[in-house]
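## Example record

The block below lists the input lines for one assembly entry, exactly as stored, with component labels intact.
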Amino acid sequence: MTLELGLTSHPDAGLQVSVLVPVWQKPESLAALYQEYARPLRQRPWAFEFVFICEPGFEAEIRELLELAERGEPIRILQVAQQLDESRLYNAAAELARGEVIVTLPGYRRIEAEQVPRLIDRVFEGRDLVLARRWPRRDAWINKVQNRVLHWLIRWTLGGTLRDVACGVRAMRREVLLKTPVYGDSFRFFALFAGQAGFESVEIDTPQHPGDRRARFYRPGLYFRRLVDLLGLFVILRFTSRPLRFFGPVGMTLISLGLAALVASILVGLAPVGGLGRIMLLTGIFLIVLGVQAIAIGLIGEMMVFLQAPQQTRYRIVERLN
Amino acid sequence: MALTPAGLTPHLSIVVPLFNERDNIEPLVAATKAALGDANDWELILVDDGSTDGTTLEVRRAAREDPRIRLLRLVRNYGQTAALQAGFEHARGAIVVSMDGDLQNDPADIPRLVGVLEQGDFDLVAGYREDRKDPFTRRLSSALGNAVARALTGVSIRDTGCTLRAYRRKLLDGFFLYSDMHRFIPAAAAGLRGARLTEIPVSHAPRRRGTSKYGFSRAPLVLNDLLVLAAIQSFRERPLVMFARGAMIAILAAMLSAIPALVIPLASAGPTSLILPALPFIWLQLAGFLVLLGLIAEVVLRRHRVMYPGTPALVRQVR
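Predicted structure tokens for the full assembly:
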């Protein structure tokens, strides 16, 4: 459930840009953030609104924003009834946003505010999705190393040419956000999901905000989680409609290795001493069983895809003649 | 030239998926017109599957000159299956013909396919390439693929790779293609929907323009898709039966692997002596896993059947 707290000084008609700001985790001062990022937008001819979508527990921030809204700033404040992940926060905000162009802005400074209109310009020029890349990057060396390793892994596993998934500042046509299914905390990979849905994206260089330049260290668990995310995304993005193409080769490889181990165990011999042969035998059977399980799970996946096929749209048409 | 008046429903829809076939568009359209004549009871649906070579421009030009030619442009390259599905879903004719866009199929064969379908005995008429003009390696891989397809699906199809086919509209209405299943439409139609099908020989020309998008490297993927089709055919109503059969094999393996443990004395191999008695339990674990998976599949299937009653059956009046 979403509760609308704020108000807007802008009429619905003619509203062109909605800036969505999810308020979760630990945002910076939202009033200061709003003032900084609204300033360059005011210099453009577009009518715009800022939509802050807040998790429970940010009452102080909401009061701060309400004061601004009461002074006539184009601010809307939405509060969700429960804690949600980033994707669901954005989805809830997107349904209520009224602009033709949607800008996603994290609740902390990533790029210089003057750069945001550049992203919006590109969308008005006809781009589906424009991503900000913090460049030139004047960052702590540890951030640079982490960034390089992460993006190398992303390109290796998922493909694409993304160079700054963590930036989070994006401009897009409203349709792109509404028609791209993203869930969980995968929103940082929004461009990849949008690409799957048939939308093209472009990354443009935008100077990094001075406030973003600080060394970042995370808990080891977070790095592990990112790796698991990548594995999950690898399967989701490539094999969602054909799961056996992932599980099949995995299963067949395991079965082949298992058979090889079985043959080796027979060659080595099981008795009378036979320690090595028995270990090979155990390994072979273990691998075969694992392989069969992988294929069986792939078949279950295929069954689910088959059952859902009538409900799924598998293509998007952009032009029709006659 | 007689042009299709706007809104008139054609009797025949020809669906052609295209990916980077710019140079083939003009001769394809000309050959189709030559084969089907000036009547306005047909439409040619050219599905541009994310081409990047100017195919779209060529199709646009053809569509502007003749309203019987329709363009569907997909936002990106989804593959032949999705392109065919898009064409099928937008086809208006009572009879739908699918054909490749590389001119290796001859549109002159369309009237014969449609003629056989209109006799009323079949739901699908598939073409088979009698005298193929492809390189030897491609013919070999195709022959192997056809043999495997026949063995796995139990449906006797001579040429799964020939896209030139004619379908009854009502067959396609309840038919949903996904993954890379376009090759196996006849097998799926017969196996999953009970469609009556026949095959007739069609001519085949060597590719003159553009490049082939298929090669031997796709063989494992084709085999994978065939396995899926065969599995779906066998477990779409009772998945537990298929998984239970797998479990029975695992139990048999458990019994066989118990023999060495009974024959060889327990203490003969020192620290590894427990391995042999443990082996049957690994197989039993697999058996249990497969039964549980089968039960999950049953639950998913039942739940789905309740929520979505499914495709109406193909019914024919005998008298």
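Residues 275-308 of chain A form the longest helix (34 residues). DSSP finds ten helices and nine strands in chain A.
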